[in-house]
Amino acid sequence: MTVQAKTAQAKIAVLGVGVMGAPMARNLLRAGFDVHVWNRTRERAEALVAQGARVASSPAEAASDADLLITMLTDGPAVESAMTGSAGALATLPSQAVWVQMGTVGTSATQHLAELAGQRVAFVDAPVSGSSEPAERGELLILASGNRALRPCVQPLFDAIGHQTLWLDRVGDGSRLKLVLNNWLAVLAEGMAETMSLTTALGLNPDQVLATLSESPLGSAYAVTKGHAMVQHDFTPGFPLRHAAKDITLALSAADHHEIELPLTEAVLKRWDDAIAGGHGDEDVAAAITAS
């Protein structure tokens, strides 16, 4: 069976069902795909059985006979580990399958993984923009890049987990754009943390400040949402701070490679490292306010 097969028949392997991978897998199941999941912590994969997922004991088992394979893991080394070796997905993934790399791993790692796929399987670079809540609703923004001929093969998958797919031609451009967007969001989040701290110090009503931002051109829906979470001290992880710090570290690495400076981003990372050191790494990025 080819990847152009009907949705109800297509088998998708999902490697990594954590904060983002699990809701993505659930939406694929709702769309009628045959979903096989693997996770380093098996309990997370088993939590999806009730929704119809099949749990694999290894990446190789998950990938066997798959039409499409998604990697949604923390970083480049984690993806490479899951894909290579006798228990790795590439050992069993059919040659006509498509590997869809959806985690945020940076530009260098993406290039390395594309080379790893080589002539073995087709490769699509498709990181997502959005936290766990839009992931649950199937409203992620997918930043896809790769061979145009693969678009009809993977679009049904993207339609199941996202509300919009932005296609770029060159493999790796999806990851490049993701770094740019993450860098922008990081500056917004830290800016809101400092704004809320200043608001409190000046004796102003935080809700009034946030309402003013919401109702004016100055506002950003993302920043205001994080602002409310900061005011309420609700740090339920939509996107953990340690993951956000990892992502802007990747942006700084890319900037260094291209010999440009991002002093504001460097300052944000220092603040976030302080918050992580204070025990807030697994909390939402809104916990950045704890360092302010």
Automatic annotation (TrEMBL):
Q: Which Pfam families match?
A: NAD_binding_11, NAD_binding_2
Ordered alphabetically, the record's keywords are: NAD, Oxidoreductase
Q: Which SUPFAM superfamilies match?
A: 6-phosphogluconate dehydrogenase C-terminal domain-like (SSF48179), NAD(P)-binding Rossmann-fold domains (SSF51735)
Entry EC number(s): 1.1.-.-
The residue ranges of the 3-hydroxyisobutyrate dehydrogenase-like NAD-binding domain are 172-290
Record's keyword annotation contains Nucleotide-binding? no
Q: Give the highest taxon in the source lineage.
A: Bacteria
Family matches, as InterPro entries: 6-PGluconate_DH-like_C_sf, 6PGD_dom2, 6PGDH_NADP-bd, HIBADH-like_NADP-bd, HIBADH-related, HIBADH-related_NP60_sf, NAD(P)-bd_dom_sf
Q: Name one GO molecular function term.
A: NAD binding
Where are the catalytic residues?
178
**What does UniProt give as the signal peptide span?**
none
Which residues are in the 6-phosphogluconate dehydrogenase NADP-binding domain?
Answer: 11-167
Q: What class of enzyme is it?
A: oxidoreductase
Q: Give the family, as the similarity comment puts it.
A: Belongs to the HIBADH-related family.
Q: What is this protein called?
A: NAD(P)-dependent oxidoreductase
Q: Which organism is it from?
A: Streptomyces sp. R08
Q: What is the lineage of its organism?
A: Bacteria, Bacillati, Actinomycetota, Actinomycetes, Kitasatosporales
